[in-house]
């Protein structure tokens, strides 16, 4: 039975994502009504610049007073696609107080204040859905929150930022410069209002916090996530990666410790083998592996940014929330019962690729190898000036004669076996103090093996 009285939707924000949400709501109105069991009506659109021409939007619906819109009392669902912390946070809590459930794409806000927002939704008996906040169009929140609710997730690893994947992919495959690739990503609507959030890893860190929280039933905030951006990745890093049969991706990695007693969450650039499925994720696409005890390894892949893909996720949530509303129910709220401690980056076990500029004289390799050994870090391979001189452990290290640079310098590339990140950091600090080490040209973690 189709209800004739429409469910009223307030759209907060009508930019890259909001304009696509409005378009799909209009063009697919009949199908949405059938799927929900009642028509959905766009009851108001809050923006910052009311005079801007917005195709397909009735100007009479446009307002700059978002607070008055969410306080109207007849709004069933508020779709928040403004972004940022305020006024989005106040508008969402006001919406709950005035009878509306909320669909949001705002990862920055959810990573910072997710617990309080969930509590407010629960207190007022409303829904808070945010599939679009992580990995654009890819269904990931709902599979973790619902489909895998009976399993034990141990690891979530993937590419969750479209802008940086677009930039790294361009740098790798076309040799494009960083700024040129960023400008293109911004023009395509992938980047955040301030692209610093993308390139410095804040956006991916917010997504990692959300994913870790849901996966491990534990509150994980943005500040708990170790974050390194991709602005320092150079063409030389890509050359080194290629020599190792790898490429470079900005990865988000959330892991349960081997003893199950704690979790970690981190975002940083990493080398991954070309044979790894994540290496072939191109452009603004995202891909995320979820490893769980019973299901094993699941891979989620698709468009991670852009107006239309993100609107798809928002619309999916809108349908779910509207159905709940008609059924007089709400979907799952926050699940943080496990309350596992979030360990620092030093506790993570990983591998390093370290590029050193060293004095080209006898004994330097032995000196360098000693520093690794003193920190309990085992070396996998060493290459001097691009020539592989050893493989399979410290015992095989020897100094090659080739690749000498003018001024008596050589380039050493060391790849380690897996070790505690704290030990690797300590190793690099000690290497910097050696007279024979003229500089640490680059350090990058190696993942995916
Ligand atoms: P845009 O900057 O394109 O749009 C923001 C919209 O919010 C604009 O319509 C703007 O109005 C409006 N707005 C800004 N401030 C206010 C305010 N104080 N009151 C009312 N309206 C306001 O952002 P996006 O559409 O790209 O992103 C929106 C959200 O979706 C963000 O949380 C973002 O992180 C998230 N997201 C974005 C994705 C993407 O690919 N772009 C993908 C996944 C999530 P006006 O039009 O007048 O300027
Ligand atoms: N700026 C984000 C990205 C949008 O590039 O992934 C999608 O969340």
Describe the structure.
By secondary structure, this protein is an alpha/beta fold. The protein folds into three domains: 7-136 and 308-327, 3-Layer(aba) Sandwich (Rossmann fold), CATH 3.40.50.720; 141-302, 2-Layer Sandwich (Dihydrodipicolinate Reductase, domain 2); 345-446, ACT domain (Alpha-Beta Plaits, 2-Layer Sandwich), CATH 3.30.70.260. The chain has 14 helices and 18 strands. It has helices spanning 16-27, 29-36, 66-70, 88-97, 107-124, 141-147, 162-174, 178-187, 196-199, 202-216, 235-243, 307-327, 364-374, 421-433; strands at residues 7-12, 40-46, 62-63, 77-80, 101-104, 128-129, 153-159, 226-227, 246-256, 263-273, 285-292, 296-303, 349-359, 379-384, 387-391, 409-416, 419-420, 437-446. Strands 7, 8, 9, 10, 11, 12, 13, 14, 15, 16, 17 and 18 form a twelve-stranded mixed β-sheet that branches. The termini are far apart. L-homoserine (HSE) binds next to helix 7.
